[in-house]
Specification:
- The protein has 73 residues and is mainly alpha-helical.
- The chain has a domain of 51 residues.
- Helix content is 51%, strand content 0%.
- The longest helix is centred in the last third of the chain and has 15 residues.
- The termini are far apart.
Length: 73
């Protein structure tokens, strides 16, 4: 049976997503994503806030620090 990915297995944070989905933080650390966000006048915090809002809408009991900050404002 062949492996689903040709990339060699490695340990550590940088290669952990090779065998699964990258985290939001991994995506937001990508240089291409950073460039696109800058071009669009956005920051990683804007994306994190949008993700938090989506989580809250999907699960009304979910709260995190970003959601709490927005409620306080």
């Amino acid at each position: 049976m062949t492996e689903p990915f040709a990339a060699p297995r490695r340990s550590g944070h940088a290669s952990a997503w090779i065998h699964g989905e990258p985290t939001v933080d991994d995506l937001l650390d990508d240089p291409v994503v950073i460039t696109l966000l800058q071009r669009d006048g956005l920051t990683s915090d804007d994306v994190r806030a949008a993700v938090a809002l989506g989580r809250q809408r999907l699960n009304p009991g979910f709260t995190n620090s970003i959601t709490k900050q927005r409620r306080a404002a």
